[in-house]
Prior knowledge:
Strand order of the largest sheet: 1-2-3-4-6-5-7-8-11-12
Structural class: alpha/beta
Largest sheet: 10 strands, mixed
Oligomer: single chain
Number of strands: 12
Amino acid sequence: MNKMIRSAASFLVFAMAIGLACIGAEAGDLDLKRGCVYTGADGIDYSADCGTIVVPENRTVPESRLITLPIIRVRATGEQPAEPIFWLSGGPGSSNMVVGGLEVLLDRHDVVMVGYRGVDGSVVLDCPEVARVLKNTGGNLVSEASLIRYGRALARCAESFQADGVDISGYNVLEVVEDMESARVALGYERINFLSASYGTRLAQYYAYMYPDSLFRSAQVAVNPPGHFLWEPDVLDELIEADAALCAQDPNCSKRTNDLAKTVRSVYQNMPSRWLFLPIDPGKVGFVTHFMLFHRGSAAAAYDAYIAAEHGDPSGLAIMSLVFDQMMPSSVTWGEWAAKGFIDYAAPRDWLRDMNPAGSIIGSPVSLLAGGGTLGGSWPVTLLPDWVHEAQASDVETLLVGGNADFSTPVQFATDELLPFLSNGHQVILSEMGHTNDVFGLQNEAMFHMLATFFDTGEVDDSHFEYQPMSFELGLSFPDMAHAIVNVTVAIGLLISAVLVVLF
């Protein structure tokens, strides 16, 4: 998904307005102006409104200070629009103002984006000290010493915000739900629809419980029921084993490995510390592996690197370790990620043992980082009502969509733990598809036909989807990249040497 919103005025001026909007403002104040443009994937510009809404930082505190959140409303193109569609993005730690491809829904619906507190508005829970620690792990991201440093960095970040007057206890999932309700009221909508993805589906679930009369229909993609910001190793093992079975049926993949799951386990448990001059951090490789397994294309690249390593070329693992350093520390707003996602990590556990049990294929590196960080103090978790930790009954018309190869939000949890509570629920499971990019992108036309039909009529029409088997084929692999880097480095070295010879 790419950002498709651009303002007609200077974006800098818009950003400054966010910080200044609270002067003399009251909770619920909406400052929305025309002049923005939504550029669809079809290349057409659609009229939009941009602005801010003022909300309390912590609604449980009567004298809470105010913060501002950005709002973008893309106006429906039809003459008689139905209920608007509010977008809820994935994360946590990521913006809710990033979305594309929704022009198919604009014929009958406004599309609304409300910024996530802690990442989009006047307070951004950015933690540069965490990013520095994640890059400098001492050789293993998920070693006990590294986890302690990570937890301490999160604690220092939280203390710094508190010293600056930020009430970090207000940055929780229920306050985000309240922000959406405040936006609905301020925009004058009687009822709204939700289109949500991943983490956003959890918010949609909470909203359905808290404001059932305000919600018309809810489409949840890559569904995350309560408790599943935490990934258990045995679940990841099962998913890798499922991919291994697909590999065994694939002529090219099966030629390279007799047992893909066994290959991944062996390489992960016996990872070298470097390849040539490039270091290999096993914890970073594991972290990147988990994220790459979210989607089919990147999963194939990850498996290819492990297979190559088994055959004596660990260069792809070195690139995966490098990818972590270049992308992960700066791609997540770590304070916001902790403030929202840590609600599923409240129960005390032996994280080092439970998230890397003996015999597991890769354990659960992401959960080990999140839970293991509590060894060093970590971000203070806001205590929320007990009901947020379990699915609740709902009569809202709800569509659940997911792929059965999704390593981020395994589809069986929506089937077993959420669907039974939805009296008007329907689930569509897409064979051999992964997380959100697969579901939205692999068969985009079929997906948005189903969404448009659901929002317009309440019917679920998945007839346009076709079976699309998992492919292990690659273009440019990680080992290819690694060898290209070495070749370029050697060539530059030879060139410098030649120049020095000529000059001296």
